[in-house]
Design goal:
- The protein has helices at residues 24-45, 50-61, 67-74, 76-85, 142-154, 169-178, 188-196, 201-215, 220-234, 239-248, 260-266, 270-283, 292-312, 338-341; strands at residues 2-4, 7-9, 96-108, 111-123, 129-137, 162-165, 183-186.
- The protein is of the alpha/beta class.
- The chain has two domains: 2-74, no CATH class; 92-190 and 248-341, Nucleotidyltransferase, domain 5, CATH 3.30.420.
- Strands 5-4-3-6-7 form a five-stranded mixed sheet, sandwiched between helices. A two-stranded antiparallel sheet has the order 1-2.
- Strand 3 (96-108) and strand 4 form a beta hairpin.
- Helix 7 runs antiparallel to helix 8 (201-215).
- The protein is elongated and about 90 Å long.
Length: 343
Amino acid sequence: MLRLKVGTIELRVPKSRDGQFQTALFERFQRSERAFVLALMKMYQDGVSTRKITDITEALCGTSFSASTISELCKALDVQVAAWKSRDLSAHTYPYLFVDALYENIRQAGVVASSGVLICSAVRDDGKRELLDVCVADTESEATYSDQFASLKSRGLSGIRLVTSDAHTGLKSAISRYFQGASWQRCQVHFMRDAAGKVAFKYRKQLTSDISSIFACTDRISALKRAGEVASGWKEISARIAVMIEEDIEQCLSVLAFPEEHRRYLRTNNGLERLNEEIRRRTRVIRIFPDEVSALRLIGALCIEQSEQWACGRTYLDMSLLDSPTEADAEVLSLPGEKRLAS
C-alpha cells in the first residue's frame, strides 16, 4: 500500500519463481521514505514536539502518525548517540577541558525529578573545539563525574593541561583525581555570581567592578596585589566577601599561566553555557522527559550536531602559542593537593 496526499494506492507485486523480483519504483519510494524518516528525526532534534510533528505529517501526507510512532522512529538516534559516546579519542590530545552541567526534568519510577546532564568539551591540539561526552545522572556528585572522567580516559583522552569548571566540591575532587598535574581554573563568571549572591543588591555593582579589576590584571603577582586591596576595602562592608576574595580568588587565576591570546576563552565556561542555552531552547517544548534514555537521545543528538559544526568551522585557538614561554610559567597552579582545591 502506498499512502499519498491524494489517497491510498494498492500495489500488486508480480511473483517470480525465485522471489527476487525488484522494481525501481519501490526503491525510489524507499529512498523517499528514508528521507522522510530523517526529516522527522531532524524536527525532533530541533525541538518540535512529537504531537506537533503528528499534525505536520497529517497535513503533508494525509496520514496521521501517533506521537508514540514518532518517538519509535526517533529511537534510531540511540545508535548514533551510543557510537558517538564510545568513539576513540586517541587521535588528538586535548590541552583544554571544560566541564559543566545543566538540569532537566526527567520522570523516574513514576516521579518527576530534576536530573543533571553532565557535558564535557575540549580544545584539541589542532585548535579545534570538540564535545567529548554527555551523560545523564541522578545527581551532580564526585561519583558521577568520576565515572564520566574514567570513561573519557578509557577512550583515549590525554594531554589535559587546564580544566575550567565551577567550584562544585564533588567535581573538584574528581578533577584532582583523574587529571593530576593539570591546572584547575575556577570559572570567573561563576565566582562573581557566587560573590554577588552574598551581598545586598545595592552593593552588587561595586563588587562586580572590584572583582573585574582583579581579573583584568595580566599577571598573577599584580592580580594578587589587587585582590589584597579589594579584600581590605570590603572588610567593613562584608567580612564574608573579604574572606572569599582572600582565600578563593587564586583559584580563578590559573589562566594567567597560559598564553595571553588564549585566556579570554579559558577563564570561563561561557562556551558551554551558550550550548546549554541552546539545549534548553530545544528541550523546553518537552518540559518533562519520560525517562533518561529519551533525554540522552535528544541532548546527545544536539551535542553531536554542535560538535560537527565546531569540527567544520574555524580554528578556535592557535595552539602553537601554548608551548611558547610566558612570564607566568613558574606560577602554574597545579591540581594535586587538597590545599589548592579547598574552597
